[in-house]
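Researcher: Dear colleague, please comment on this protein.
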Amino acid sequence: MKKYFLTIAGAFLLFACSSKNNETSQKQAEHSDHKLEAGHHHGSNQHGEEKEEKAKPLSPHTSAMGMIGNNHVHIDYSSPGKRGRMIFGGLVGFGQVWSTGAHKATNITFDKDVKIDNVDIPAGKYGLFTIPDQNEWTIILNKDWDMHLADEYNKENDIVRVKAIPQQLKQVVESLTFEVKETGNEQGKVTIQWDQTAVSFDIKNSK
C-alpha cells in the first residue's frame, strides 16, 4: 500500500512539474513573439523614415557661381527636371515672362559693378527673368528679385533687356542648369541650359 501511495505521489509531482515547464515555455514563446513583432514594427517604421529621407524634391534649390576677374557672380535658383515633358513651347510658354526656374524667381548677385549690353549695373542682387522664343530670347535683369515665380514681375523695374539667340544642344540636359564662366580679361558669360536648348549673355566688369 505504501508503495502505491508513493507511486501516485511521484506521478502527481511529475505532472505538476511538467505543467509548470509547459507554462513557462509558453510564456517564453509569447515573449519572444512579442519581441519579434515589436522589432518588425520598429523595422517598418525605420524603413518608412529612410524612404522619406531618400525622397528628393522635384525642383531642388541650388546655385551657380564663378569669378570674373575679382568679381564674384552668384546665381540662386530652383532647378526643375524635364521628366519626359516638352519644355520650351510647352511647360515654358513662348513669348511669356519666365522666372527662369521653379518656386521663387531666380536671382543673380554681382560683388562689383558690371556692364551688360553696354548698360551700367551697380553691384547688388537682381531678379533674372527671361522671355523664351523659338528664334530669340530676351534676358531680363529686374530690380525685384524676391517673389514667387514671375507673379509680381513689373517691366517698369527692368534694369536691362538683352536679346540672345538660343543654341540647339545635341544632348538633353535633364535639369535646368546655370553656368558662370570667365571668358577673358574682366569678361565672362552666363549660360542657361535645359532640355536641348542653351542661351547665354555676356558680362563685363566696370573699371
In short: The longest strand covers residues 187-205.
